[in-house]
Amino acid sequence: MAIQNQNLNNDRPGTVAQAVNKDLPREIDFLRRNDEAMRRVMNTVEMPDRMAESLVRFIRLNEGKLGPKRREGEFEKLTDDEVTSIEAIVREAFDGFTEG
Fold it and tell me: Whole-model pTM?
C-alpha cells in the first residue's frame, strides 16, 4: 500500500506544516520569553519557583498588571516597588508576543 504524497506546504490548522512552521516556533518563542521573565523576576525578588511562575502568569494574563485581589492575597509580602519592577519585567519579556 503506497502512502499518498501530501502537500506539506499548506498551513491549514491541524496540518504537520502548520505545527512545524507556525506552532512550534511560536511555542519556542513563548518559552524563551517566559524563561527570561522568570530569570529576571527571581533575580529581583527571592521566592519559590511556583510562586514566581504564578506571578508571571497572572501579570501576563492581566495585560501586564498584577490585579488588586492577587496583590492583596498571595503576593501581599511584595512591596509596591517590587510589584512595579516585576510588572515591567513581564511586560518587557512579552512585548510583541500575541496570545492564540
Answer: 0.78
Contact (CB, 8 A) for 34 and 56? yes
Question: What is the C-alpha separation between 70 and 37, in angstroms, rounded?
Answer: 19
**Mean pLDDT for the chain overall:** 87
Band (86; pLDDT cuts 50, 70, 90): very high
